[in-house]
Amino acid sequence: MIDKCLYIVIVLICCSNILLGQDPHFSQSENYVGYSNVAATGKMDTDFKLSGVYRSQWSGIPDGFKTYGISFEQKLSNFSYGMDIISNNAGPASLHQNNLRLKASYNKLLSNQSNLRIGAAVGVIQQRFNPESFQFDNQYEPGVGFNSALGNQETFDNTEQMLPDFSAGIMYLTKIGKIKNELGASMLHLNQPASSFYDNGNEFYPIRTFIHVKSEYPVNEKIGVYGIAQYAKQLTAKKVIVGAGIDYHLSEGKIWNLAFSSRLNDAMIISTGLKMKNFDVGISYDIHQSKLSNFTNGNGGIELSAAFYFNKNKKAVEENSDSIEFYNKEITKTTLKDRDNDQIPDNMDECPDIPGVWKFNGCNDKDQDGIYDSVDACPNLFGHKNNKGCPMDELRDADLDGLIDDIDECPFLKGLPEHKGCPDSDLDGLSDKVDHCPFLKGTPNNNGCPQRSIKDVENFDIDFMPNVHVQFDTDQAVIKTTYFEKLDGVVAYLMENRSSKIYISGHTDNEGNPSYNYALGERRSQAVQHYFLERGISTNRMSIISYGETKPIHQNNNVYGKAKNRRVEVTIIQ
Predict the structure, then answer these.
(1) Identical fold between 2-310 and 452-573
(2) Which of 100, 166, 225, 406 is positioned for an S-S bond with 190, CB 3.0–4.6 A?
(3) What is d(CA 51, CA 38) in angstroms, rounded to the nearest whole number?
(4) Which helix (H) or strand (E) holds 51?
(5) Which CATH superfamily is domain 2-310 in?
(6) What is the pLDDT of residue 23?
(7) How far apart (Å, rounded) are the C-alpha atoms in residues 524 and 70?
(8) Would you say 444 and 430 are in contact if contact means Cβ atoms under 8 Å apart?
(9) What are phi and psi for residue 88, nearest 5 degrees?
């Protein structure tokens, strides 16, 4: 009699779960996310996916709670749609709950390292039960026991219902270095459909909030590790799952998975699976840690899953392919030109002469640092974009001023951190890059030039004030004859004013790379210096420097501006 009472209690618990709208849960994390967050619809490396799952939660109880799920998805570029059915069955009273949903999602590329997915679903919930299969108190006779001939004398307004149901979700996927991250949230039963079998009942399906996080890290070419955290809340019921797993690449296209997780205060979960090119299979087992284990004879819950993929022959599907779908480009049905035969048409291929993969727009990225091999200076080493794909510890500091070239605004001139790597030749507190008189100690309110008195101006020939310019042709350091007269005037002035000195600075436009332009500016300033040397001006009266392309006086976006920037400035200092 005690066993029968316990059995009835368990059945009623099962019944209450359905009537109060407590949704089933899955132990395999991908299944839980797939059925709980509709934004995951189409998050796959294929056009079509058909998946199914079976779960027996209380295997130690006759007619225990069983869940079946089946899902179909199709991806059309950034838009995906699908349908899924979840069926819950429990107890001898044939308690059934079926949820059919039509779902859709949209994937928005935010950058080459992140994307956002949003999804929504509309469906119906069918629930029914057979009251004749229940055993009620009024069917027990004193001294006799249960008498099935007695009617249960219970009445229900309905034994079957069809209820509308709405859900929505969002997912953010990003890659930070080598780590792929997934963060999502969803809300199920947004319309809170009524669930009572009585016309005047006030039971309803409460909104279920679901939040999930996952991070993946590739240890090496064979091994990847990941961690998960999931939280669900529905009325007063809460569920938290935390765990970690490992993916081991057996061979091309085959990955074995092993994971351990805990549904806090409920069960420990062990799961394993095998991922193939065209299908996945998985199995998990719950080791109960709650009081329920007293009624299940120690038996836990088992979950089986399988997924089949169709049209999974794209180059986007590789052994090490990212789960984040940054590029969802489709091959058109027409025959397109493909020079490198990587099945990516040339009009979509950023590396049309090098076989590549879809997720990198036809290029490759062997070290997975987000920089294509074709422009990666260290294609086999995970690096930084500020160092052309090389590791941070290999960043160059050409002028040895303590600032790496990529953040040094004067990478070939030894400077100071407070001036972003540029020098302050006259020590007036302004870097040479913004100082209009970089060789004359001045004041900030006069753009780095000294405040001159009227007497100073009268005693100095205005023709030989700073900014005597000599312009050069593209990629040349040869002084044009048209500037000889002006330079000879500087020579004459220096001969008459023996205490005066000159500073010679070389400049270029922005054609070519910075290191070449620095050397070109140096050749130009040396050419002017050599001109003065031949005319009797000693080297101790001259100082030269090259600023390369760092100090343009005009915009470099037109022929005129570039011509003005290809110059040497001669500054006369008394």
Answers:
(1) no
(2) 166
(3) 15
(4) strand 48-56
(5) monomeric porin ompg (2.40.160.40)
(6) 63
(7) 74
(8) yes
(9) -115, 135
pLDDT value of position 57:
73
CA 286 to chain centre: 33
Q: Estimate the crossing angle of helix 484-496 against helix 514-534, to 10 degrees.
A: 60
pTM reported for the whole predicted model: 0.51
If one counts every other C-beta atom within 10 angstroms of the C-beta of residue 459, the result is: 9
- Joined tokens for residue 47: 């056009």
Domain boundaries, the chain: 2-310, 452-573
Give me the pLDDT at residue 148, please: 67
d(CA 71, CA 84): 4
* 49, amino acid identity: K
Which value, to the nearest 10 degrees, does the dihedral of the CA atoms of residues 358, 360, 362, 367 take?
-120
Report how far residue 3's alpha carbon sits from residue 10's, in angstroms, rounded to the nearest whole number. 11
The sign one gets for the Cα dihedral 544, 546, 552, 557 is positive
| Contact present, 50 and 308 (Cβ < 8 Å) | yes
Q: Give Cβ neighbours of residue 220 (< 8 Å, ≥ 6 apart).
A: none
Compute mean pLDDT per 10 residues along the chain, 574 residues long, and list them: 41 40 72 90 86 79 76 89 88 74 92 87 87 69 71 70 93 89 94 78 85 92 91 89 93 86 89 89 87 64 89 42 38 57 78 78 78 75 71 66 78 82 86 81 82 53 61 91 90 88 91 84 92 90 88 89 92 80
Residue 440: per-residue pLDDT: 78
Please provide residue 517's backbone torsions phi and psi, each rounded to the nearest 5 degrees.
-65, -35
Reduce the DSSP state of residue 146 to 3 states and report it.
strand
Name which of 234, 368, 259, 359 is nearest 28 in CA terms: 259
CATH 3.30.1330.60 fits 452-573, yes or no: yes
Helix/strand/coil for 138: helix
Write down the pLDDT at residue 464.
43
